[in-house]
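S1.2 Input.
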Amino acid sequence: MAGHDHAHHTGSPHPGRLSVALCITGVVFVLQLVGAWLTGSLALLFDSAHVLTDAAGLGMALLAARLAVRPASDRRTWGFARAEVLAATAQAAVLLAVGLVVLVEGVQRLINPSPIASTEMAVFGAVGLLGNILSLAVLFGARHANFNLRAAFLEVLSDALGSVAVIAAAVVIGLTGWLQADAVVALLIGTLILPRTFRLLLDTIRVLLESTPRGLELSTVREHILRVPHVLSVHDLHVSQIASGLPVLTAHVVVDDGCFTDGHVPRLLDQLQQCVAGHFQISIEHSTFQLEPASHAGHEHGVHT
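S1.3 Output.
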């Protein structure tokens, strides 16, 4: 027996705020990329990659908000919820490759520094910081609305710190002539980008492989289901994730034979759904249970634990 229908809660509110912040971040990215080319600054180039990370994060949050309102169909039963995961996987893979290349270049520039136009570098760093401040102002009022907006706010905040580091490196180069300051800041910004990019790539791969969501132990789920009265055993228990905020559960639950004759099945189904929706760190609101009498065991094929 299947569970009740549920809406797909993958979108985020405040798409207007996300759109404005995305536009500002996109302009900053282009300007800093131009600035990196004009000044020869590796730190500015890496900071532009940092901005690209922010833009991608904002874009995915906005994409989730827009696509979530599109209805499912017979061809796409989950709608376009998985588009967010595919975009994040591609973004993380590209940024990881770019980040590794820039890190190698940063180490080389520590040994053999290149000339840097420090004044222009400071100007473009200030432009980036101004854009970050504007984006923070736009997102500030809704930063606690949901996980997407909180993450977007923190992304832009970390990029603002990167812009401050770029300006500081430009000042050091202008005052002391120590060109390695550019490479040092590039490496520092890399330590901000690469770990979270790698985590994002791992998280999206876990979703695509339909692994059990982080923060959820399948054995604990099984134990809770077995505590529901009249439940004898559970098999073919699977918990995966369609997109962020959309975990799904399917399970075959063996119950007392009498439940099918005394009218207890509907109440038992409600108990099972309440069990998985309210007892765990991740609320599983989309669950499907196949209730089976104990006498059905001989007819099951390909049973999994």
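S1.4 Remarks. The first strand starts at residue 231 and ends at 243.
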